[in-house]
Amino acid sequence: MGIKICKFGGTSMADGNVILASAKIVESDASRRYVVVSAPGKRFSGDVKVTDLLYQCYESVLDKNTDKFEKIFEKIQARFLSIEKEIGKDLGLQAELDEIKKRILNGESEDYCASRGEYLAGKIMSAVLGVPFVDATEFIRFDEHGLLDEKTYALGSQVLKKYNRAVVPGFYGLSAKGTVKTFSRGGGDISGAVVARALRAELYENWTDVSGFYACDPRVVNAPKWISKLSYQELRELSYMGANVLHSEAIFPVRVAGIPIRICNTFRPEDTGTYILPKVTDISLEQPVTGIAGKKDFTVITIEKSLMNAEIGFTMRLLTVLDRHGISFEHLPSGIDTISLVIDNANLRHGVLDVLVKEIKDAVNPDLLSVHTDIALVATVGHGMAKNIGTSARLFKALGDAGINVQMIDQGSSELNIIVGVNKDDFANCIQAIYNEFFN
What we know:
Structural class: alpha/beta
């Protein structure tokens, strides 16, 4: 019998009752032997995730605001003690909470603070299932650059195979300096994939609050088509562009071993879910598009200069400006005499945009530089797009008919996706128009 790795997200760990339901899912299949958990998420609209509260705790200690810290930590403590009460047994959480509080007040790192939600959630699930708790710091390693260290997989296999079953907290591991280090937000999905690869699992199940992927966001389009399967590449494109069912980096560990991922609904465990596979072989020419996803709040800096293509080192000088400020770009569409930097607005706070514009002008002396703010990006993704004549024409006609002005176009070299930049006010209409063209 093969091994299945189960990762339960924040909504699946939100309170005692749903944790008990998650445990039943694990116990219903003997091959579900290893479990990875997130910190408790929102229980209802307006609720606050435990991880967000922990970040606030760290910030209040940094600000030397003890009163604020006490109030926030009291919310965290109340949340976990409520879970303990709902589960109906003494899980020893008070002692754990006291120790965590003491360490945060004594100056523990931000990553340590943020990781404690997963740590406590792991302790809870371990007690509920009656299986060993294995701390992620025992095998998940980051290198000196903060990247996942390849030795994690061999070490994970060595550590985890000591146990027939185990629970592992997601989201964090051990840095090269021997301190707790977290992945980026939502990184518990990556932890689950790491465990799956370390144990050469037959399947990585990611349990959340939706029954898989849909062709687009149900909050934008009413009742969109459910996707039964998609490829690693399609997942990467859709997740990166805002389809937040699974972290976009979660495919990297399992891709090497060719392990499929199944997205499952904790609240509807009977649903088939969506399978994410190394390859999708039965590409449909009748349905070239797999999904549509998008994100708002980008700025596009467009540089125009005659004979740009003949100017050696032009792009290097341009990107050196971004590197100097520690800013990454999302896309870099270009023409023979034009190039555009697409940057997430989160990287342009505190007047950085004005500084960038000045330094870019100094670095490359453009004929014209223009800045477009309030841009939204919408990606249309599917393996069938490259094989289907007229897909691009259909997409842009649909946008034209809907009265949407396309301000930027970027198509990947694999022809797996077409990304358009539109005004953020046209975001929802853009997705709806593309969906109507390819799915209705």
